[in-house]
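Running this now, will post back.
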Amino acid sequence: MKVLTVLRVLPFAALALASIWAANRAPDGRRPPQIDFTVTLEAIANALTNTPHIASMAMLFALAVLATGYSRVWLAAVLTFLVGVSWELVQTTVIATIPVLLTSSPTLLALPLPGSSYPCRFSSVAQPVRAWRRTPESCYVT
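Update: finished.
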């Protein structure tokens, strides 16, 4: 492996392993494995508004894109999703936490998007921005 490749992969790998280790910590001990499979409107709303989880997944996804390159965004999405699923799996035996299957749903729903619509969305937004930046009038605030 080239040094540059290692330096690109190292931040994602380090943060992924550290976050899995942190999710596996059990200060109150262990119990038999348990996962919450309930699907209610409250659980869906909680999963879609869980800001710390979404922010950490966004950070992991950005580091995964850095590691895999923009041409393989789908691989970055898969790696990020696998880290999120591993968080839930290592928490199955931790006392004081009940892993919820729906917590990974925002990542799961976004998984097919990078390969299909993100480049289209990016190009449809980037072209007008590039055109705006080329005009001399855009440099002046009115």
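The helical segments are 3-24, 41-48, 51-68, 73-90, 105-110, 113-116, 118-134. More later if anyone needs it.
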